[in-house]
């Protein structure tokens, strides 16, 4: 409940609209309640004495009041929709902003599917419940109280029927509400599951097709789908019994009022008009109880949704700027120093990097070589602070990266990740992400260096070709080259290429590396690779094995000093290369 109230704190700015809506609902209720009173007058003063004129006159008045009620109801609906949609928009925007500032720690903690469900389904849940809460709660309260007073005024004698009818209806509801609420909460979790299956299916469609897993996935979806359907059916089965029971309860109450009323009229305790009005008041009172019940069914769902949203909103962000950050020295060179760096992923048992110490000087190309899973990507992800070191220090130009604002740090780094990420938009826009103020000439220049220009020109609209979601209309190597162009255009004084040349063929890679020479001149370059050929010419190669450095030096030095390096070389280079290197 606390979390729902926290979200409702966002309603402050809509207070005026809420007050307006509640007032309009009051008008609507007043209009509705006026109708039985007029009806009572029509019966007593029109129908019984046979005064047709009076019936017409009051009938028209009834129509007018009913019209006012409808207008008030439409206006109230309009205002509450405005409030609830506004609240939804505000929550979504806060959610998005917060998630945007998440570091990879928080993304790993939640996962994409649930973040998507929370920002869509859960927010909608809050929106709907807010609208219902304002409309139904005020309606039920106003109607309940006013109708009770009016019913009592109409006939204190008949009020006794309500002493039995209200607790009976309330009891029926209480008995049914608990299981229904539990089922609705379950439905929310099951929808989460469906979303996860659907998402994985869409993302992994190629693998699913290639491995003939379509049937398996269909079954997986059917199970998730069936779970939700069954739970819905169970919930609706209960509701299907509840609703007729309530109707029976209400009809019995009407019969009781008529029976008791008839006796009362005989005895002179009440009159026909009052009895007719009383029946309508009684129905309104009982309907208010039903409205309140619907709210009670909805509320736990809204609370659950709000807990899921607030959990994200209140997740502290691991990687933050210091309150009093330092700045880099004026003369920025781009030297990188790893000093006894160790790193452990949260929830992992063992560190994936241990005691990493090496330096990359400005103007140097440092290759990071190692087998799959040896920690190469993890190591370079520490440079732009995608993660923070667990122990030790990572210095850039002598300043610990944790001490400087993240923006200042990242502005200096051209980072090309291992897996190319392409956004929906044109080719040009995708490259421009690296440098928002880049001119078209700069973009073409960067694409030329990344060996992307030729294929981009062949696209239907060249640089203005729209790339579809996830870059599905491009090949893996093409996406990679756009991603490389994006890094190149940034021209930071530090370049980090995380195994991003592996999707290119040897010839293209060689051309790219030759073209890169001028761009990276004077900068510090960290080049992650699995292929020896990619790092052989580096000024320094750091060999990683199971998260530890097992060799540092040039290609020649490592051939003599590092057994692991030699093994990698022998496993990768052709006989021809080995002969040329004097190794065979
Ligand atoms: N988010 C994560 N949470 C927990 N463990 C992780 C995470 N990412 C990577 N790891 C683990 O860290 C280790 C090193 O992974 P990393 O991606 O750095 O290796 P790599 O050398 O770049 O491998 P590859 O050459 O295959 O890309 C692996 O054992 C991996 O299972």
TrEMBL record:
Occurrences of domain ABC transmembrane type-1 (ranges): 35-301
Listed InterPro entries: AAA+_ATPase, ABC1_TM_dom, ABC1_TM_sf, ABC_transporter-like_ATP-bd, ABC_transporter-like_CS, P-loop_NTPase, Type_1_exporter
Superkingdom of source: Bacteria
SUPFAM superfamilies assigned to the protein according to its UniProt record, in alphabetical order: ABC transporter transmembrane region (SSF90123), P-loop containing nucleoside triphosphate hydrolases (SSF52540)
CDD domains, per database record: ABC_6TM_Tm287_like
A molecular-function term among this protein's GO annotations: ABC-type oligopeptide transporter activity
Gene Ontology CC, one term: plasma membrane
One Pfam family this sequence matches: ABC_membrane
Alphabetical UniProt keywords: ATP-binding, Cell membrane, Membrane, Nucleotide-binding, Transmembrane, Transmembrane helix, Transport
Location within or outside the cell: Cell membrane
Transmembrane segments: 55-79, 133-155, 161-187, 241-262, 274-299
Main location: membrane
Membrane topology: Multi-pass membrane protein
Domain ABC transporter: 336-571
Coiled coil feature spans: none
Protein name stated in the entry: ABC transporter
Source organism of the structure: Caldisericum exile (strain DSM 21853 / NBRC 104410 / AZM16c01)
